[in-house]
Every structure is written in C-alpha cells, then in structure tokens.
C-alpha cells in the first residue's frame, strides 16, 4: 500500500450515516434504483472498450479481439451475479466472494481501461446481505476511480484491501491517480451514503498527489 494515498480528507465522502427507519427504507429504494443504473454504466464502459478493440483490430486480429470480448462478457456476467441481492441466510466466505468480485471487476472494467488491480482479502464470513452491499460500495468506488483518477493511464493501479480490525471490517479502495479535488457528488455519492447507512458503516477518505484512498468501516456484527 506504500505510495498510495496522502493527506487525510474526509470531505472526499460525506459521513452522514445516522438515519431513521423511514430514511433507511428510502435509502434502500434509492440504492436499488441507482445500483441498476451503475450496472448499466458498467455495461456502457464494456461496450466502449469493445468498440475500441474492433476499431483498432486488423483482419488478422479479429479472432483475438473476439476472444477478449468473450472473456469480458463472461466477467460482466459474474460481476452482475455478485452484485445481485441475495437473501440467503447462510454465512458467505469473504475470501471467496470478494476475490471473485475483484477478479470480475479487473476483467470487465479495469483491464480494458489499462488499469492494474491488486487485492488482499482477509478470511472470515459475513451475511449475504452485508456482502452484497459492501460489493456495491466497492464497485462504485472502483468504477469512480477508473473513470476519474487516471487521465494518464501509464502505471495506473487500484488496490483493494479487506481486513478485520478492532471489531470492524475495513474495506479500502486506493488508487495512485491524480487525487480527488472535492467530495463525491451525484449518483455515486447517493449510492455510497444509502448503502453505508443500511449496514451502519462509515466512510473515511484521504487524497493527495499520491492518489485517493477511501475506507469503508463496517461493524462486524452489523
């Protein structure tokens, strides 16, 4: 993680996460609506990368481009499945779930944009609902970094860490990009706020010339 992240700046996100039951219901309805919107945006990114590949491909490169396209479609399907709500009460393996998520994000979103992904995921279990909502937050942060952090893609890296510390799960998304110039706004901010409230989580951000790092802190027993 050395070299990624810099000065603390919790204004990168807005930690307003104390809400009534009615607020939580409205948040969850918003989350469902906006998460579908986010998946559509991810599909748009996938389509753009495919068009770029086929535009650049010569007659001899078409089969290579087709193979790459097929892998991305399969990865997008895995990503959509992981981000679909799951009410199964059985505990979910954090290592298996989030390693699969990071792999799907890398194949479907990051690799086509020339961004390298690293991940370190601790072992443990969470409920399916917790995994689903954390996955939506993580995907939003990764997608936001991929879109805005790297005007120059050379050496672009997004690092994902998930660990347990002092009775809480910490999920960190860090990039070595240009650094955020202000708080997350619009759709992305609303998704993060609503999801964080739904699992009693808080967000902490820091940014600077070395990049941006956002950590989701969720009580282990949320």
UniProtKB/TrEMBL annotation:
Kindly state which reaction or reactions the protein catalyses.
ATP + protein L-histidine = ADP + protein N-phospho-L-histidine
Domain Histidine kinase/HSP90-like ATPase per the UniProt entry, residue ranges: 118-202
Q: Kindly give the SUPFAM superfamilies that the UniProt entry links to this protein.
A: ATPase domain of HSP90 chaperone/DNA topoisomerase II/histidine kinase
Drop me one GO molecular function for this one: protein histidine kinase activity
Q: Report the source organism.
A: Bradyrhizobium arachidis
InterPro entries in alphabetical order: HATPase_C_sf (IPR036890), HATPase_dom (IPR003594), Sig_transdc_His_kin_sub2_dim/P (IPR011495)
The enzyme class is transferase
Q: Where is the signal peptide?
A: none
* UniProt keywords, alphabetically: ATP-binding, Kinase, Nucleotide-binding, Phosphoprotein, Transferase
Reported EC number(s) for this entry are 2.7.13.3
UniProt protein name? histidine kinase
Q: Which residues form the Signal transduction histidine kinase subgroup 2 dimerisation and phosphoacceptor domain?
A: 34-108
Determine if Cytoplasm is one of this entry's keywords: no
């Amino acid at each position: 993680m050395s070299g990624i992240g810099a000065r603390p700046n919790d204004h990168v996100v807005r930690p307003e996460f104390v809400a009534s039951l009615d607020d939580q219901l409205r948040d969850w309805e918003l989350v469902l609506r906006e998460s579908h919107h986010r998946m559509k945006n991810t599909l748009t990114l996938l389509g753009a990368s495919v068009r770029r590949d086929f535009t650049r491909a010569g007659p001899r490169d078409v089969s290579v481009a087709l193979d790459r396209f097929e892998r991305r479609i399969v990865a997008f399907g895995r990503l959509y499945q992981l981000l679909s709500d799951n009410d199964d009460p059985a505990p979910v393996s954090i290592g298996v779930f989030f390693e699969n998520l990071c792999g799907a994000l890398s194949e479907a979103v990051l690799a086509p944009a020339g961004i390298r992904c690293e991940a370190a995921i601790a072992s443990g279990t969470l409920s399916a609902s917790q995994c689903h909502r954390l996955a939506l937050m993580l995907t939003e942060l990764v997608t936001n970094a991929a879109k805005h952090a790297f005007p120059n893609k050379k050496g672009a890296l997004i690092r994902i860490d998930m660990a347990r510390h002092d009775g809480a799960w910490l999920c960190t998304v860090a990039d070595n990009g240009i650094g955020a110039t202000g708080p997350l706004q619009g759709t992305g901010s609303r998704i993060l706020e609503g999801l964080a409230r739904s699992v009693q989580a808080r967000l902490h951000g820091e940014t600077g010339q070395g990049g941006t790092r956002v950590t989701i802190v969720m009580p282990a027993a949320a």
